Amino acid sequence: MLLQPIVNLVAILSKKGLKRAIISPGSRNAPLTIALARHPDIQTFSISDERSAAFIAMGMAQSSKEAVAICCTSGSAAYNYAPAVAEAFFLEIPLIVLTADRPKEWIHQHDGQTIYQTDIFGKHVKKSFEIGADYSHPDAIWHIERTVNQAVNLANTFPKGPVHINIPLREPFYPLENEVVEFDRNVRIIERTKTEAILSTEVWAELLQKIEQYDNILIAGGQDDYQPELSEVLAKIQAEFQIPVLGDIISNLSFEAISKHDTFLPKADAELAPELLITFGKSFISKSFKTYLRKHKAIEHWHLSLNEHLIDTFQSLTQVLAVEPLYFFKKMLEELDFRQFKNGDEEERDGEYLNTWQKAETKANVYIENFFSESFHQVSLNEFYAIKQIMDALCPNSQLHLANSMSVRYANYLTVSANKKIEVFANRGTSGIDGCVSTALGAALTTDKLVYLLVGDLAFFYDRNALWNRYVPDNLRIILLNNHGGGIFRMIDGPSKQAELNDYFETVQSYKADTTAQEANLEYFFVDNIEKLSASIEAFCSKEGKAKLIEIETNAVNNTEVFKKFKEGFVY
């Protein structure tokens, strides 16, 4: 075949573990499309909208913990990948971005679909690569093999992330009729040895001395994967050594960690302030938590991260420990256990600090349950109440995807039961509303679990092209909160007091999702009162039947009043 090196490029991807690729139709990328589609070990999907395609791939990679390729034609198609590529970069999700291109001499020559694609994603990829447009010379073939190996190795090296390979292609693009595409079994594979970062005995001695020095130690987890083993270790540290562990809903801590901090921290004084703060994971949703720790700064703040960027979220960072959280906390638990065994009861920690946090947590739990009593909400349905009822009804061992804006914030106040073992995902890398539906759909295509998506109306309609394909899986469940506008802007002091609120911040719209659901062949539930909600929840949340969408229509003004009452009503 004329473009055999491109066929071999795909063979290398497969041999390095690539199992899935999302292709957006085009002509310039035809050689890549044909090679990906005909490879026996790569599952391919055709998604026309490149923006949605990239988010679907990101959802697949996030859920499967495996790199996924995306492939598009030349021109503006590549730019449509940008939002998902940026999100994947900050969430540290591996994507292999393959963009077909015109040869360099044809750029800016009034020829079709030509833009400057070299380094098009800037700093939002781990690295950009480009191969030459001519493949006949042995050095060119060597360059392609080396480039693809390096790109995949880099995407899968911690911190993982997207890599970009720009591929100029000359015509002809297509094999002859009945021409067999053969994949070279002897393509060269270059592996990168994985290493494990550890801390020296001397460093551990210093850290343990400081842990024993401080009475008020807080461990806090940012956004992270669902890791039962890590949760088990942290649960033991909290129980045995009286060190509170806190996490947002996206921290995926599957034990009774501190999780209702959004409710009580705005009313708390300095008694919860840590002397030593140990953090891991990525971003925190809770503005209350970030504000509290920036006001009451820890004496020392250790952050566990292999990321080269110095991230100082709480403006108190004193030390970056370049190790995996599981390694650190397992070693910390072992060392503390040994020291306690060696020294006896005299080394047991005072539990007053943990007790203070747990008292606040218990009070918040009681307050939340009382607030959502049926008697309080008989007047009219509001979205906060609706979310509480649905989150309580989610099936165990499922996934919950949270769209940005109010959806993720509501969920963070309520959290999910640790006993249900629900994995929680959210696009908090850039925290945009674009791609939330696509990400959840991509995840649903990689798992047998039920995948729930909690999404507001603007985020849903902005990304409904996620449903414009033939792959919508039966295990997808979409919870659509339709208040006919960007309700969050009524809840923020700044825009809520402006004359432009309705037209330029809230962006009032009159759409409903019934037509979209019908076109995408989703089972559709419409809810606009408490009785309908109660009657629909069980059928919607169940594993039976095809993909489902429940549209919960509420009044934005009423939602704001209820949420304001909730936040103001808690007494610390």
TrEMBL record:
The keyword Nucleotide-binding does not apply. It is an enzyme of class 2 (transferase). Its cofactor is thiamine diphosphate; Mg(2+); Mn(2+). It comes from the Bacteria. Coiled coil: none annotated. Pfam families: TPP_enzyme_M_2, TPP_enzyme_N. Residues 208-401 form the Menaquinone biosynthesis protein MenD middle domain. Its EC number is 2.2.1.9. GO terms for molecular function: 2-succinyl-5-enolpyruvyl-6-hydroxy-3-cyclohexene-1-carboxylic-acid synthase activity. InterPro entries: MenaQ_synth_MenD, MenD_middle, THDP-binding, Thiamin_PyroP_enz_TPP-bd_dom. Pathway: Quinol/quinone metabolism; 1,4-dihydroxy-2-naphthoate biosynthesis; 1,4-dihydroxy-2-naphthoate from chorismate: step 2/7; Quinol/quinone metabolism; menaquinone biosynthesis. Binds 1 thiamine pyrophosphate per subunit. CDD domains: TPP_PYR_MenD, TPP_SHCHC_synthase. Keywords: Magnesium, Manganese, Menaquinone biosynthesis, Metal-binding, Thiamine pyrophosphate, Transferase. It catalyses: isochorismate + 2-oxoglutarate + H(+) = 5-enolpyruvoyl-6-hydroxy-2-succinyl-cyclohex-3-ene-1-carboxylate + CO2. Residues 9-115 form the Thiamine pyrophosphate enzyme N-terminal TPP-binding domain. Homodimer. Catalyzes the thiamine diphosphate-dependent decarboxylation of 2-oxoglutarate and the subsequent addition of the resulting succinic semialdehyde-thiamine pyrophosphate anion to isochorismate to yield 2-succinyl-5-enolpyruvyl-6-hydroxy-3-cyclohexene-1-carboxylate (SEPHCHC). Belongs to the TPP enzyme family. MenD subfamily. This is 2-succinyl-5-enolpyruvyl-6-hydroxy-3-cyclohexene-1-carboxylate synthase. The gene is menD.
